Amino acid sequence: MRRLSIVVVIVTLIIFTIIIPKENIAGAGYQEFYITAKTFEFSPGTIKVKQGDTVRIYLIADDITHGLRIDGYDVTVKDHPKDLEENYVEFVANKAGTFTFRCYVTCGAMHPFMVGKLVVEPSTSIWQLLLLTMFASSFTLAGLLFNRKERNKVSEVQVKNVRKFELTKLNWLKKILLSRWFQFWLILINIFFFVVIIYAGLFGTPIGNKNIAVVFVWIFWWAFLLILLLPLGGRLWCTMCPIPAPGEWVGRGAFIGKGKDKSWLIALNKWPAKYKNIWLQNIGFLLFAMFSALIITSPLYTSLVLILFVIIALAMSLVYGRRVFCKYICPLGGFIGLYSLVSPLELRVKDVVTCDQHPEHECIRGSAKGYGCPWVEHPGSLKRNAYCGLCTECLKTCPKNNIAVNLKPFGTDLLVADERKIDEAYKAIIMLTCALFYSAVFYGSWGFLKSWASMSSVLEFTFFAVIFIGSNLLIVPFLYYIVVFTMKCIDTGKILSIADFIKPIKGAWEYVKGYFKKDIIIAKDDENNNNQKRSFELSRMFIDFSYVLVPLGLAAWIIFSLTLLLTNGSYIVSVISDPFGWGWNLFGTADIEWRPYFVSILPFLQLGFIWLGLSSAIILGDRIISEYGIIGEKKVIVLLPLVAFLTVFSFLFIAMYF
Fold it and tell me: What is the spatial distance between Cα 241 and Cα 136, in angstroms, rounded to a whole number?
């Protein structure tokens, strides 16, 4: 899987490189443009010229002072409202391609996302990129067709026998993980920044790109989480997250040493069984994402959200004990758990039999060396990363030395078939859909979308919210259900009846009415085939194949975060000298002007990650469909609707950035 993905990316990048026109200044035309800048939009948002043309751009500020800077050409112009003097910039468009122009004068909350496009022809058109995206998916399909190694066994067997490297064999690393000081210092460092960020949001400048609350949380930390921690370390952020720490420390009555296993305020009732899923996290993330244009651009709202998280986490820890907030409520915890399935890092028992034959289970109950699992998970039954917070308490408490931290191939946990659930399936769809909305709102040149999302008027925001929630919970899931239904029709060789189509939808409605009745959503394996094939029920198929969206969704969030970091990362350099926007210059970097970094290679990174996510998703679809006993050429044919869906979504992401 990994080799094929690499080949796909390399081949497509080579082709893309070949078709990009080289620098040529043979043209001799002249073009003028008048661009009106208003909060937070350029009009027109896209201008086109011929390669070699001399271009003059007049900037007209409509409301407040705005600037215009063109990536790749490094030319700027600024205008003040009601300025009688015409302000313009003139340059020769000697480089072909699509170049983003941005406002470089701070003009409000959505200022970092005020963008437009300069198209210098002959450039790689959006249709050429579509053809290349179709080539990437077709090439992957062809590779699957000619791969004679069929996979008919259930995925759990493959996962169990996968090759791993045990990191805890490294004595120095194991010594660090066994120390109670290790996690404490990680959390303490993050608490320091956490307090600074909250203080900055409450009392610092309200200008987002001048305040450490916005710059460090939504530019640095968000990129660090999505680009590095999640793909490589899974739930590693949960190891050092400061949000649940106050509740744990108060409940345990200790900071570092071993305190109480149960909080002194633990409730009489345990966490309700019907909420032992990530539906609350799904709802929380949707609410967070719906208001994200306000939250991630406002220092005050950023601080208020973080304070709210701490209060809820503290209450849940004292009332229910352990990390109930992290496991079932935290809006970020749901997608961190889902995308941790891609990560090669895991914590598992070395030998399940040894674990089963040891009834004391200090890993759950705790011991003098450590606490019972804060996530209320039994390490012996762990098959995936989704609900392991990597706190290493079980590593400290296990008297049998039966806990290991391992490295394994990427995406292995996505093949654990019997752990797939409808709440996680919906999370995969929600994350993919939200990534598309985020890309359109923050990187699109449509000012009206930014206006709707940032609550410029209640009516417009209500319209945006209806579209946003409807797309996440109804439209995209329904379209994906049609894809799965079509796959089943192809497999059976006939068009199924309307009753067959509606049956799972009725089941979903009963699921909602029945308040999370598990028997509606969990389909059993086909017992007549000795578990070698899975039940080909539509509801089961919808759940299984929703996990195919995980690699593509993660890739989409990586390019969103990478683009945010490279285009706005210079704010980090300036804000470390003036974290509160009070005019300080602690390290002499406060006056460094904003400029994007590595914009010349950014398009290649964006395309590379999308195509990697696309090919990985298709290959995962091949692995999952093999669980149903479909092999050979028929397998590729049945996959076609799924491949078409993935290709269309990949193209939509590309269209947001090019």
Answer: 38
